[in-house]
Amino acid sequence: MATRTRYAPDRGLTVRMTATMFLLGLVFVGFVALIIGLMSYAHASAGAIIFIALVFGGGTAFISLFYSDKIALAAAGAREVTPQQEPELHAIVDRLCALADMDKPRVAVAPTDLPNAFATGRNSKHAVLCVTRGIQRRLDNDELEGVLAHELSHVAHKDVQVMTYASLLAIVAGLLVRFAFYSELFGGGRRGGNNSQAALLIPIIMLVSALVYAISFLLIRMLSRYRELAADRSGALLTGQPAALMSALQKVSGSMSQIPTRDLRQAEPLNAFFFAPAVKLNGQSLANIFSTHPSLERRLKELEKVRQQLGQER
Amino acid sequence: MGFLDTLLGRTKPVQPKLDDLFALPSAAVQLEAATGFTPTGSGSVCFRAVEGKTFADIQKDVRELLDMDADKPGGGGLPVEVTKDDYGFTWLVSNHMSDEVDALVTDLHAVNSALVDNNFGPQLLCTMVAFRDETHRTLALVYLYKRGTFYPFAPVPGRQDRRDNALELQVKGVLGEDLKIEQDLARWFPVWGAPGL
Smallest Cβ distance to A231: which of B9, B14, B52? Predict the structure, then answer.
């Protein structure tokens, strides 16, 4: 019986994540339905625009998913390392993979002093685990193990795939705004007076798309935060050492805020996959809803729950 | 992991497979016949200790249980050693005479069942039994709990971080029928400096 309680999933987190994904799906379905409705109302041939947006959006998402490992490694300037080059790092990953019974990802090191780590790749066969020299230097083996367990949980949860699919909607909506804007600029004169409804349609599509983009952006960020919490939790359960992960988080986020922002901005494209966000916004309450990562306090609080769960009496 | 677990970001802890460990004594006989490697009588269980008192208490109980066995007449006579490696994993080393592989496996299994009974089964990493031949080459058979498979690990004596892959593959061939050998070579991770090796 106690097996279930000690390693029980966090029901609250599951519910919140389901609700977020449901809302995203709802926005997507509503968006498509609205566009189709508007078009049939206006008998317009704006279908081409939407088709192109879907193809472009889908294409970009697919490419970024397929090459996520290579793109992320190149963006971080990281290089894959062999067990001979980094025996300790490989040994930690080896043990974690044996504990979790998963395929060992490739291991890479980025020569930056920014303390961070990320995992990417579309599935466990193509996964890459990357740590920076900065995080290796600052954390001891136990803390680094906690961070790597967090990243391995991202791989196990297929977070790169989930987040790519979730972002697809935002990409398409964003492209629609742009395409509609251009066709308004260049195509408006040609269509002229033959269909006044169609002329009205373009701004409406623009407005709706912009709205959908904004809403889905917030939802994606929310989903990203929940998935971070889920990875924290799974990682801590895997090692059995929530305290090590907590101290790693504190160390990393402490030194994050000390480093000047100019250096940090280079890390922005990778932010969603990072262990701790490298780019910090000012103004806590507003920053939270735009943030890809939960606040340090929140993460520590959730890990404290894991600790209590693991320490339950027999 | 199921689709739903992936979607919701839940990891189910993997429970260990224990039964295949008992194939070890007969495999040891086969190994000696084919390669001349004999058991050193020492074996160990490696697990990741969970922080907090609950786990520490269980670990203490297991140790006392095994030490009690050692004190009995006819027991191995050697107490259990506990060491922690550089990566934070705990190794419980049990020592017996070289012809007591059965007793050794029973000891190792006692550790397993103590952890599993207290629902800490997912923390088990591997079991290792050490062998040696006349030229003092060492060989370990490592049992992976989560896969229920064995693999050989043969460090080259006197050379740091070098393993004797030829010997390992030879052992794989020899024991292929007696033990479930891990087929994915990428999972044959090295256990440098493992206690009892």
Answer: B9
